[in-house]
């Protein structure tokens, strides 16, 4: 793939992303988009993003066999999931999950 094609893809993705975000701003500004109606769904967005980012990295690592799953990663994922449920956010569960992971790696679990 040459540089011109790559830049054209970047520009097309930028325009598409901007159009998607602008459409929500435009709908909200017209009053036809009721954000309160979708608030329950939007509250599930942060845990869904966290799960989408972390589960493939935990499950599908290296050769994706059960022998290759490390106890440190599974434990850190469980700690992160429990903290995400308790805090209802992403930042603190991610930080504390990473600390759990590095502590377990340091002590070679």
UniProtKB/TrEMBL annotation:
InterPro entries listed in its UniProt record: Brnchd-chn_aa_trnsp_AzlD (IPR008407)
Domain of life: Bacteria
One Pfam family, short name: AzlD
Transmembrane segment boundaries: 6-29, 41-59, 71-104
Keywords: Membrane, Transmembrane, Transmembrane helix
Protein name: Branched-chain amino acid ABC transporter
Native source organism of the sequence: Oceanisphaera profunda
């Amino acid at each position: 793939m040459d540089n011109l094609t790559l830049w054209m893809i970047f520009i097309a993705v930028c325009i598409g992303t901007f159009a998607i975000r602008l459409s929500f701003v435009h709908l909200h500004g017209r009053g036809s988009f009721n954000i309160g109606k979708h608030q329950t769904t939007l509250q599930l967005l942060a845990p869904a993003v966290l799960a989408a980012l972390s589960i493939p990295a935990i499950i599908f690592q290296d050769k994706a066999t059960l022998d290759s799953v490390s106890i440190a990663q599974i434990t850190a994922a469980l700690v992160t999931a429990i903290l995400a449920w308790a805090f209802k956010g992403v930042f603190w569960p991610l930080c504390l999950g990473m600390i759990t992971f590095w502590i377990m790696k340091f002590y070679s679990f």
